[in-house]
Amino acid sequence: MHESCGVVGIYAPDEDVARLTFFSLFALQHRGQESSGIATADGKKLQVYARMGLVSQVFDEEALSALHGHIAIGHNRYSTKGSSRITNAQPILISKGSSTFAIAHNGNIVNAESLCQELSDQGCIFHTSTDTEAIGHAIVCAPADNWVEKIKYAMRRIKGAYSLTILTKDRLFGVRDPFGVRPLCLGAINGGWVLASETCALDHIGAIFIREIEPGEIVEISENGVESYKQDSPKSALCIFEYIYFARPDSVINGRLLYSARLAMGEGLAEEHPVKADLVIGVPDSATAAGVGYSRKSGIPLAEGLIKNRYVGRTFIEPDQRIRDLGVKLKFNPLPQIIGGKDIVLVDDSIVRGTTTPQVIRLLKKAGARKVHMRVCAPPICYPCFFGVDMATRWELIAAQKSIPEIRDFIGADSLGYLSIEGLIKAVALPKQTFCLACFTGDYPVPIQMEMDKLGLEVMPAELHFGVRHR
Q1: Are 391 and 280 a contacting pair, CB within 8 Å?
Q2: Per-residue pLDDT tens digits for 25-51
Q3: Which long-range contacts (CB under 8 A, 24 or more apart) does 223-228 make?
Q4: What's the CATH number where 17 sits?
Q5: How far apart are CA 202 and CA 215, in angstroms?
Q6: Does residue 275 sit in the same domain as residue 344?
Q7: Contact by Cβ (8 Å): 376, 416
Q8: Domain around 35
């Protein structure tokens, strides 16, 4: 399972904003590893540099030195709408007449296809297959004479999840959708301001956390400081997986340190699904804290029985078939001397398709584990996400097709326990109505088309997609 993106925005006249944006994106690398980009503005013009690859692969001293200005936005991408190719790298530059701006987007809008059709009929020319460009055109085409009103108008046309950073030649905007599905926060740095998907990005550049951007809020940052424009929010629908998996454990959302929340998830699992065992192992790195929590609550010793290769997936060199056949061993290596002859409690953040978990359990048993008791922080995922998580179709979700005993047998575990929704809500210590729980319940915050395709904009008619029909 992958999250969509990480976004950053910095307004700081006395700082090297391109460099600060680089380090902020570095802190948000976990949110997307397909492409990275930075756009800057100096009050007169905008420039964008975006390439495929990790932040450290995309940028060097020469690239950063060429990005001048006192305002910047940045983006790390994992594709949820549109394929992984250079034309879809962000930030994206949008122009119409004298209006030009750059935009970066975390999330997914559910009416992208119909919106693109409408905008194409209005004369918009599309150069990417992302819903981000649809948002950009909706803004630039809005019948209003200032940026805030243009953004407000576009927000009424856009349905779905979006946290945006928007850069004009002389100001920075942060926008969060009315449901607040994706996080966005505000920080301060040396007389300037920072917007970021997570607080860990603020920490890495020495910025001070001020507050979270509220659902439905637009913040405008200029030489006049920060101005806020709030709109009604129908209900809060923050993605619960920010707490389970997506955000870094050292980030804070809604006043809750993610590490503490994940620790509590492990404790909840120990309460709901106790078992006799010799060792507890948290699947690194996403379930490390939950493993600690299970161990503390159960009294079963914690062990590091799986070593993770943290650089897997971070190379463009394709493995040959012999290496590919090793499967999960490319990512994890067990410690037979630690787990041999032991009954293991294996704690993980989630089971989505059920393709990796059986391999991990087989790996542990091949290394000598006598029994493996699987414990999962996320309740059974029975419905796909359409709001910025590249998860699976419903027919690929194992919990939508099998019962818990059937899943246990399929993955090869000796027992299987999922944290309940009630236990999960207790762990995050916020009201249930704060969150989007649609992947567990099927109750989506807005009506959706159940079989949306992340590549839907790729297959739209060419005459529409590239604007041949523009008038």
Answers
A1: no
A2: 999 999 999 999 999 999 999 999 999
A3: 223/13, 223/170, 226/186, 226/193
A4: 3.60.20.10
A5: 20
A6: yes
A7: yes
A8: 2-237+456-465
